[in-house]
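Pair request: fold both.
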Amino acid sequence: MKWRCNYCGFEGDASRTYYWRCPRCSSPLSLDYPVECEFSSSNVVWERYSGFTPFKPSKWRGEGLTPLVSEKTSGHTLLFKLDYLNPGGSFKDRGTALSIAYAYMLGYKKTLVDTSGNTGISVALYSKLYGLEPTIVMPKTAPVGKKKAVLKLGGRLVEAESRTAATQIVEEYIGEPGVYYVGHLWSPLYIIGHATIAYEVYEDYGVPDYVILPIGSGGLLLGVVYSFEKLRECGFMEKTPRIIGVQGYSCQPVYRALYGVEEKGEDSTLADGVMVYNPPRAGEVAGKIREHGGDVVLVGNTEISRAHSELWQMGFLVEPTSAIVYAAYWRIREKIPSNSSILMVLTGSGLKTLL
């Protein structure tokens, strides 16, 4: 298992030393490890797809293997991946389970993360599972229910004025003895963890024609693309889906990276979970969207609110950030050929936003 920087060529032994970013040029790192092209029949996600992951966490709480629900509408097959049903209420549990297991393997005693909410809950949950002490830095504007969940899980909560300020605050703690900075915006372990989503979809359905994904840091999109690429390399499939990313008008760094401009539109503050203004992998995300014939769709609060209400009426109890994928579908549905299948990952539980 080896760290690799695709920008400056740095390499390091990941079994001995943790780097949350490249120590030479400060760019995001990749993780190199051998891949075995096989699934098992286990009902534990890390055993089922152990050939595609660098190691198996020693503890878990039932993350992964979430339901895939199919609905027919407007001549399309809509595939809803219910990742808000993970133990911590979001898809982040997949990446966190790997990341915190790795911290434990290397002997860290404390964990640290800056987050808009869901990652904080996830890091607190898995840190406590391994007996580590979590510090969660969140903006004051984060939903109250998410803050209460962090505290209930035993996390130390530090509030910041904004999401950007939260990132600045963690810099005060990085480098302290025994502190593991999760760095989920940077970490390839989150990309690898999120990749299990597409392995599950492939087993449950096959290969969808389109995939619509929310973009905050871009780790979810990179993980899903990575897994479909691996499945193709392993000979399980001949084509990969067209990838559609979704951002809001209030925060569109990947749209800007893809097209070189920003578009004016209605505020998208309801989708607080994707308000990442400077994602470290923005260029990488834009490149993968371009490579897979995709696009970035921008939505505003009116569309988000309508999609959120409709999803609840359909029985999907998600938070507003999750609804941006459904809002994007309605924006582009007339451009999608009839009889196409469209995968939408529903990322976070709405129950945490009701308190």
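--- second member of the pair ---
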Amino acid sequence: MKKIKTTPLAPQEFEVEQISENEANVMAYPFETGYAISLAHPLRRFLLSSSVGYAPIAIKIEGAKHEFDSVRGMLEDISDFILNLKEIRFKLLGGVSESEIRYSFAGPCTIKGSDLSNSEVEIVTPDAYLATLNEDSTLNFSIKVAQGIGYVASEDTHDELEEGYIALDAYFTPVRSATYKIENVLVEDNPNFERVIINIRTDGQISPLDAFRNSLEVMYAQLAVFNSEISVKAPTTIERAEESPDLKKLAMHIDSLGLSARSFNCLDRSSIKLIGEIALMSTNDLKNVKNLGKKSYDEIVEKLQEFGYEVGGDLADDVVSALKKKIEAL
């Protein structure tokens, strides 16, 4: 006889299987029959449509007036050059949302994605091919890279560009693929419960787990409108802390501090991702971060103060607890 229920079983198991740096499986269970797909399908849509990434939105090439032009000494014509450029994935440094980056190359040489990395931008596809220059040829160009979501056609940005720039179709989404499958899982003596496995593969601009977190945040924000006229239970201490302005700021990525590339990279290589992680550190802990010099230390302390916090400063106990919970989940 089927057991009578008044509420559906809520899943309590969550696992992450890291397949590679840019691919992971996110698993949750047990769901009641039919519930897994009800959640997995919209999450997949949010992963593909709402993940924030970077893309070139315009290019200006010295000696070229339009995308069907050519540059003396370059093997590719401009249209092929642009197609190759779209395969290179950028990541702006320093917390900026848009930047104009200038490049200059002299032949003979083969230009790859790794040749475009500098203090302003990181290339997450270093082996991607861009162009080949013959001997005695030069190539000077500027790229506008912006942060965004989804796809934006060149027609939508053309009118905002300075003279000489060629507008590009921009594909911002850093999630290369998002798929899911549903499996049956045994709960007590019932084999009809479900486990959802969501496979996420990114291009390297963002980790699969960060992409998943972002999709959840977007999903929650979209659903929040229904809470406006619906009374909900009073939040717990941790839930109140998670809604506090302090925690929202401290849970932001260190990109938001606007650090120099040197300071940012020192923190990033030490797996320090959130502003709150710095605020929880003592001055000695921060000074002992590998390869962090005095100049970078002073810059981080100053930027954190501008954000309203001190290294080793006092934070409310509930904020500290909620912050540590977020850090452990990284």
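Observation on the second member. The chain has ten helices and 14 strands.
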